[in-house]
Amino acid sequence: xxxxxxxxxxxxxxFAEGKGLPRLEGHKLGAQSVQSVTRxxxxxxxxxxxxxxxxxxxxxxxxxxxxxxxxxxxxxLVGEREELTGNDxxxxxxxxxxxxxxxxxxxxxxxxxxxxxxRSMTLTLALSYDSRQEIANAAQKLAxxxxxxxxxxLSQMLSTATLPPVDLMIRTxxxxxxxxxxxxxLAYSELYFTETPWPEFREADLLTAIESYGARxxxxxxxxxxxxxxxxx
Length: 233
Ligand code: IPE
Ligand code: IPE
Ligand code: MG
Hints:
The structure is a single chain. The protein is of the alpha/beta class. It has one domain: Undecaprenyl pyrophosphate synthetase, CATH 3.40.1180.10. The chain has helices spanning about 10-20, 25-45, 65-80, 80-85, 100-115, 130-145, 150-155, 205-215, 225-230; strands spanning about 5-10, 50-55, 90-95, 120-130, 170, 190-195. A 6-stranded parallel sheet has the order 3-4-2-1-5-6, sandwiched between helices. One 3-methylbut-3-enyl trihydrogen diphosphate binds near residues 14 and 58.
C-alpha cells in the first residue's frame, strides 16, 4: 500500500463540455470524486493524500470559472468538516493560499483548526500551487539564513517536509505531464496515467491504480537482483 498518493485531478472541464454542460458542472462532480477518493484512501490506510486542486497558473482562466472554482472550494471546505473530523483526517495546504479570496482563506483556516488533532491521514490540498516557485523560495530562504543548500536542507524547507515521500502519482483525463506539481517530491514516485476524467474517477479506479503500483518494482537506481536480495534480508 502506498503511504503517500498524490493526484493531479484533471479533466473536469472537458468531461462537462462533452456532455454539453458548463465546465463548472464538471468541477462540481469533481468535488464528489474528491470525497470518494479521500474516503477510500482513509479506509485503505493510506497515510497521506495530496490533491492538486488549483495551480498558480489556473488564475489565468476566465474570471467566471475562477470565481466558480473559489465558491466551490469554499463550500467544500465548510461542507467536509464533519466528514474529515469523523474520519480523523487532518487538512493542510501547500501553495500560495494568501492569494485566495478572504472568505476562502477564512473557511480554510477554520477547517484546518477543526482537524488539527486528526492523525489517521493527512489530506493536503495544493492551492495556488507552483512547484518551481516553492523550490526557488526554499533555496532563497536557505541562502538568506546562510544554511548550506543540500538535498536534505532544501527538502526540509519545502511545504511537504513533514509528509512521507510520494509513492504514487496519479493523473486523470489522459494528459501525461506534471504541470508544475511536486517537481522535487516526485523524483522517485511511480507515475500512473489514466484516460478516465476526474469526475468519473472513483473508488474502483483508485484500486486499479494501487494494483498497478503494487505490481511494479521500484529499483531506486539499483538492479533487480539487488532489490530481490534486499527483500530476502
Ligand atoms: C481540473 O480540471 C481542475 C482544475 C484545473 C481546477 P480542468 O478544469 O483542467 O479540466 P480540463 O482539463 O479543462 O478538462
Ligand atoms: C493541473 O491541471 C492543475 C490542476 C489539476 C489543479 P491543468 O488542467 O491546469 O493543467 P494543464 O494546463 O493542462 O497542464
Ligand atoms: Mg486540465
